[in-house]
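G., the chain you wanted modeled:
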Amino acid sequence: MIHSYTCFPSGTCFLLPFDLSDKFLAWLSVYLFECNSAFSEAFIAWYCKNPVIYLIQNSARAVEQTSEQMSLISKLRCITVDVTGTLLAYKGELGDYYCMAAKSVGLPCPDYKRMHEGFKAAYTDMAKRYPCFGHAAKMPNIVWWRSCVKDSFVRSGYDYDDETFEKVFKRIYSVFGSAAPYTVFPDSQPFLRWARSRGLIVGIVSNAEYRYQDVILPALGLNKGSEWDFGVFSGIEGIEKPNPRIYEIALEKAGNITPENTLHIGDSMRKDYMPAKSMGMHAILLDRFKTPDAENWRESGALVLPDLVAVQTFLTGEEVLHEPANAI
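Predicted structure as tokens:
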């Protein structure tokens, strides 16, 4: 075997094998040498001790990923997707909408920070006492939200009289039942349509109330029949993520498709990835906002991708070119 010396400015030289399989490493040694970094020297030194291991491990990873992609897309019959953080996001801050509602009846804006903290505490309490938007208690959706919003204001230090509160609440309830507070990610509609065009059944699985199915998603251009085939919403079913039962319901609604033929996409390790995997489904996590938790997700073995364009590319192995689109 022919060898070639590569020397670094420190005076250290390495004897690199120059056979056919090592031409890439020879090129890499020159590239790293030009970068003149400490890593260059350390990497080449390590490689000279472990050349076969390095090449085999990296080649195996590439082959394994390609095989996984081809195998997965051929198996799939159904894709289920989360809503918030996956297909859409909230616009602005909670305080923006509470401020508009207060101003509409001549009141000053509530403090944004206090309002945010008050709502978070009130929502958490209501969700514990009356989960799934009061489904088990047969509580009307509007009653659940009236209690939650009232408590939010009280916890934030705003105790309006009943008549004033009712005017403010009606404005808030109406706004959050429309498209106004939400923005759809530009890749959401194209991805859903692509999946359905391949003959895949597309389902929505969300911890959301009935208005998402009947009003909000259609108002945002995500319609049943063109973007998705069925929905499983916690406020309608009385089951919420991370309970695996919600995924069982999804599989049933898809036509009793097996978990092995289904992929779930979401943005929560606890609510999306883990329960879907526990059912035997395939799962992908989206990290649209570069969350600090994403690295831990990867280290735990989860497949984490930045958006739905990347998911489509992963599944097909082809570059995805979507028409430029403005979020709704």
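The first helix runs from residue 23 to 35.

Shout if anything looks off.
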